[in-house]
Fold this protein.
Amino acid sequence: MKSEQSVVSAIQSATGEPFSIQRQQSISSGCINAAFEISDSRRHFFVKTNRPSSRPMFEAEREGLLALASEGGPRVPVPVVVGADDHSAFFVMEYVAFATPGPHTATLFGEQLAALHSKHQSQFGWHRDNTIGSTRQVNDFTSDWVSFLREQRFGYQFGLAARQGYGGELQDLGERFLQQLDGFFSDYQPWPSILHGDLWGGNHAADGQGYPVMFDPAVYYGDREADIAMTELFGRCDGAFYAAYDSVLPLDAGYRQRRTLYNLYHVLNHLNLFGGGYHAQALQMLRELVSEV
Ligand code: ADP
């Protein structure tokens, strides 16, 4: 791990206790950052590292985890410290030993996410920008959800796509879709719930007691349907999750139509990050959306 000494010093000053790395293991599944488990004989930490310029990304992730930690909500790792030196930026947090989900994990996750989504405030957005994958996610506060979506979510991603050379049909359909956006919300006004923001299957798991854990968020206040939609984009949660969520906080009848709309944001982001087959997927979703309203 790069910047080992800086990581150790930062842990010592953040926790007020001596720490030295006795064991270090690389964790390979992250898409964006290098990740490690480090431990002395007693304590385990999970550390992400990246270029020194990534420090604000890690600061935003740290604040996101703090914002998500709520009584009755799903477990999230406890942040320890963010820092940087000349070689890298790093984010140290509690290491969670993941395990096979238990018989109640999916139900608990549904109930706890609904409890979290019940927390709202008066405006959409967040007090700072953050990242979705490694793309900037703009979060200026506004009380108008449709204009938030139009400008800060879709408009931003369509702009990035245009700069990467995805013009033509993608931009034409995108323009039509944005003109029709109001129609998806004609009889549905969401409240601003705190969202995980990137809740695909790779960003939640179960701890050793079978309790759900979520991590790697892209937090903002938005329509809770966006979190549920993302659980259905790459695979799907267990049916017990959706039943439990619905029993606490029922989804609106129009959710199925808006699910494609919310997932389009992530598919556009994947197009901008990875290209390839996401172009055809984005076009397909746009065709479906513009023919619906
Ligand atoms: P990235 O920001 O690079 O996408 P993630 O936050 O998704 O990285 O973490 C990469 C992997 O590390 C996850 O898929 C998960 O398996 C594991 N992981 C994430 N957070 C923790 C944690 N607090 N404790 C233990 N393992 C973790």
Notes: The pocket of adenosine-5'-diphosphate is lined by residues 27, 29-33, 35, 46, 48, 77, 93-96, 202, 215-216 (CB under 6 Å).
